[in-house]
Amino acid sequence: MNVLYPTIMVRRVMDITAEKLADIKVSALILDLDNTLTTHNNPKQDPAVLEWLAYMRKSGIKMTILSNNTKKRVLPFARELKLDFIAVGLKPLPFGYARAIAALGVPKKNVAVVGDQLFTDVLGARLYSAKAILVEPFEHETHPLFRLKRKVESKVLKRYKKLFS
Prior knowledge:
The protein is an alpha/beta fold. The protein has helices at 18-23, 47-58, 71-81, 94-104, 118-127, 144-164, and strands at 8-10, 28-31, 62-66, 84-86, 111-115, 131-135. Strands 1-6-5-2-3-4 form a 6-stranded parallel β-sheet, sandwiched between helices. Strand 2 (28-31), helix 2 and strand 3 (62-66) form a beta-alpha-beta unit. It is globular, with a radius of gyration of 15 Å.
């Protein structure tokens, strides 16, 4: 399997259901923050995301946040969501994934990483032998590096969709 291919793709994090997770034998989620749970640097909670988190908790799904952003950015958001977190996760390197999976107390074969980027979230999950759920970003970034990354991602996703649709 290509290390850039997600296990599944959904439009938004709220489209992940307990049933979909059971189908792929997942009992815990490592969640990206920016453009997965909220827009970049947005301090406000989306009511739909809060409702989804409550549903996941009720379904017995363990969750934590793994972000490449700083503690200053992640801490207030994670606190509001009542989730543990790891900031400056250095994704796609394995360090943050290893810490998150250890904290969740679940075998990595039963963990899925949820994020909006192939080259951090999906690649890191795959390199660490976890499952990957790719979500569409809440908004498209305007920074030139992000635009370039998204352009390359679109080529990979086109091939993925051709193979798996």
